[in-house]
Amino acid sequence: MRTHLVILLYCLLTLSCNSDDDAAVVIEPTLDGQWSLTNISGGLVGLDQDFEEGTIVWDFDTENEQVMITNNSDSEMVYSGLNSGTYDYSVSSTETSTVISVDFLNLEIMTLTANQLVLDDGIAFDGFLLTFMR
């Protein structure tokens, strides 16, 4: 009888274990892929310009450190970022910030999530804040 009880307890303990103690897999957001510029704000004139998704697209290739920009905005815009083309870029990080350098622009990453990227050109009072969505 005692043997049966020990076997029963062993089975119950074994079957009641599950994998919820496993470490959670955390996927870090990445620049890689296409980002659609949805808003540019700031500048000396206080610009707040919205763009339809797909009008201006930055496609980051993190393996080759290049970004292909497709800029189909109107030429009448006050500012719409870089012209269409392929640009080399680099990323540098300090303890307090991460900066993307594209062409002549140094853009600090303010927000990077799976679906949103916010870049700040870091120029006080007349700089621009670029908001991208996936």
Q: What is the overall shape?
A: elongated
Q: How are the strands ordered across the major sheet? A: 1-3-4-5-6-7-8-9
Please indicate the count of domains: 1
- The SS-based structural class is mainly beta
Task: Give a verbal description of the structure.
There is one protein chain. The mean pLDDT is 85. By secondary structure, the protein is mainly beta. Strands 1-3-4-5-6-7-8-9 form an eight-stranded antiparallel β-barrel. It is 11% helix and 44% strand. The protein is built from one helix and nine strands. The termini are far apart. It has a single domain (33-133), classed as Lipocalin.
List keywords for this structure.
about 130 residues, mainly beta, Lipocalin, eight-stranded antiparallel beta barrel, 1 helix, about 10% helix, about 45% strand, elongated
Topology of helices and strands:
Blueprint: H1 2-16, E1 33-42, E2 47-50, E3 56-61, E4 66-71, E5 85-93, E6 98-102, E7 105-112, E8 116-120, E9 128-133
Antiparallel strand pairs: 1-2, 1-3, 1-9, 3-4, 4-5, 5-6, 6-7, 7-8, 8-9
Quick overview:
It is built from one helix and nine strands, in the order αβββββββββ.
